[in-house]
Structure formats: structure tokens, C-alpha cells
Amino acid sequence: MSTYPHVKFVTSAAEAHQLAPDIGREVAFAGRSNSGKSTAINSLTQRSGLARVSRTPGRTQLINFFELAPERRLVDLPGYGFAKVPERIRLHWLELMQHYFNVRESLVGLILIVDSRRGLGSQDVGMLEWVLARGRHAHVLLTKSDKINRRDADRVLKETSAACSDAGVSVQLFSAHAKRGVDAGRHVMDRWLSSALPNASLQRDDN
Ligand SMILES: Nc1nc2c(ncn2[C@@H]2O[C@H](COP(=O)(O)OP(=O)(O)O)[C@@H](O)[C@H]2O)c(=O)[nH]1
Ligand SMILES: [Mg+2]
Predict the structure, then answer these.
(1) Within 13 A of 23's CA, how many CA atoms are on the CB side?
(2) Ligand 1 pocket mutation, candidates 33, 41, 53, criterion most atoms within 8 A of CB
(3) Closest ligand by atom to 32 CA
(4) Averaged in consecutive runs of 10 residues, what is the pLDDT profile of the chain (207 residues)?
(5) How confident is the model at residue 200, as a pLDDT?
(6) Whose CA is nearest to atom 16 of ligand 1?
(7) How far away, in angstroms, is 33 Cα from ligand 1 center?
(8) 51 near 65, Cβ under 8 Å?
(9) pTM recorded for the entire structure
(10) For helices 122-133 and 87-103, angle between their N-to-C axes, nearest 10 degrees
(11) Which ligand is nearest to the CA of 177?
């Protein structure tokens, strides 16, 4: 049974003024293009068609909002790291992301999607810095762990944890295909959506 049986698409934002109403709580997902973000969202919500999975990295620069329950949202942020993106598009992405992280009161945490074969890149670290600077939670999913052997999985987990633990960022291995780490990832998301922000002054309706 799904934790969020009534999950549904709410809206897409291509511009800052198109964000969904900033009420309740939301968890955002970010990652390089092709890191497995859409697949992870689908497996965490147990809805195979929710976020679109592509074999060829897409170029849509949209923030997609999904409602998990009343005033509880999942936010699919546009991917980054495309090889050939015109400067104009890259700047638009940057402006949209900065706006989102600056204004979003309902944002409780970021789930950062990182391909376990690549490990953390500089843009991934940049996303973590944005969200941590605003006193929000962060958690890293090292995806496609079915594609690496045990030794490499141990190594990437250890290296990523070492880079993240001082900042209070948790890290786990994840494979949507092998259904590994799905419950652990869902648990993090559920916990954030139901509890208070680490910086209590930002939100006081804790219970
Ligand atoms: N082997 C394996 N492939 C995966 C996994 N998750 C995603 N993929 C593949 O990686 C590619 C990119 O996935 P997608 O979810 O579209 O990535 P996105 O661009 O970050 O949203 C697709 O071909 C997926 O089938 C996984 O857990 N294991
Ligand atoms: Mg995608």
C-alpha cells in the first residue's frame, strides 16, 4: 500500500511567478540529468507514471509540483549538467533555482539524486549548499546501485558520507530497479513532511 495513495500532479512552473501556493510542507528532488531522479520519484511514491523517465536526457526546465496529501507536496526540480546547454537556458535555470530556494517557506528538505557510478559533483555540492544555507534538511540517494559491485558501492557510500556528514546530510544507496533503499528513502521523506524544520524559527507549527 502506498503511503500517499492520492498523489497527483498539481502544476508546472517555467517562471518564478508560476510556483504552486507556498503553504504546508514540501520536499524537493534535484539531480543531474539522467541521474535517475524521475525513476526515484516514481518508486518512492509507488506511481510508475508520475514523473517521466527518459533514456535520452530531456531539456525541460520546469519545476513540477505533485500533491501527496493536502498541503504536502513533492517538487521535481529541473535537472542540471547537460553537456550542451545555451548560456541563456543555463542562466534561466540558475535564476529559477535561486528564486525557488530563496522564497520557499514550505520547503522542508532536499533529496539529492546522485548516480552512484559518478559520485558527488560540484553542481550537486552547490545544491546542498543552497538548501543547507537556508536551514533545511538534505539527504542523498546514490542511485542505480544495482549497476555497481559491492566494493564500489561501499566505497562511494563511504566517500559521499565523509563529504556530507559534517553538514548533517544523510546518505544512502538506492536502486529503483532492484528495489533497494526504497523504504529508507520514503521514511526520510515522510519524516520531513510530518515534523518540524531543523531551524524552528522558520516554522512553528511543530507537533
Ligand atoms: N539500472 C538502473 N537504471 C536506472 C535506475 N534508475 C534509473 N535508471 C535509468 O537511468 C536512466 C535515467 O533515468 P531517469 O529517471 O529518467 O533520470 P532523470 O533524468 O534524472 O530523471 C533511465 O534509462 C532509467 O531507466 C536504477 O535504479 N537502476
Ligand atoms: Mg527526469
Answers:
(1) 4
(2) 53
(3) 1
(4) 80 95 98 95 90 65 93 95 86 94 97 98 96 97 98 98 96 98 97 70 45
(5) 45
(6) 53
(7) 10
(8) no
(9) 0.92
(10) 30
(11) 1
